[in-house]
Amino acid sequence: MSDHTRIERIRNEVIHDKVGVAPFEDKMREARLRWYGHVRRRITDALLRRCERLILEGLQRGRYRSNKRWGEVIRKDMTQLQLTEDMTLDRTEWRSMIRVVE
């Protein structure tokens, strides 16, 4: 696809730029925010929304697990793209705001 072989030892970033593929981190952020929008548009009595409201006190992660939670990562992603929770209600606007184009 890019006319290079592994023997040439060209960095992935160079090939991604040449082919026009979006960075992996951006695509992962898009997928997380797409799922978040799906969850936020559900009714508040849905199982997903009830689990979201659970407060787990005294819960400790395993020894080698990071302390990041899904909600913290979502908040970071939203601040990075300057998004608000109200934007999730309009699906077309939300999808256009989180879309990664390359």
Pick out the low-confidence regions: none
* Large-scale geometry: flat
Derived from helix and strand composition plus strand pairing, the structural class reads mainly alpha
Count the strands? Answer: 0
Major sheet summary line: none
Alpha carbon gyration radius: 18 Å
Q: Strand fraction band?
A: under 5%
| Termini gap | 17 Å
Number of helices, counting only DSSP H or I runs of 4 residues or more? 5
Taken in chain order, the helices and strands follow as HHHHH
Report mean pLDDT, rounded to a whole number: 85
Helix content: 40-55%
Q: What would you say this structure looks like, in words?
A:
The chain has 102 residues and is mostly helical. The protein is 51% helix and 0% strand. The chain has five helices and no strands. The chain has helices spanning 12-19, 24-41, 47-52, 70-81, 91-98. α2 runs antiparallel to α5 (91-98). The relative contact order is 0.16.
Secondary structure: elements and pairs:
Blueprint lengths: L11 H8 L4 H18 L5 H6 L17 H12 L9 H8 L4
Helix pairs in contact: 2-5
Descriptive tags:
102 residues, mainly alpha, flat, 5 helices
Short description:
By secondary structure, the protein is mainly alpha-helical. It is built from five helices and no strands.
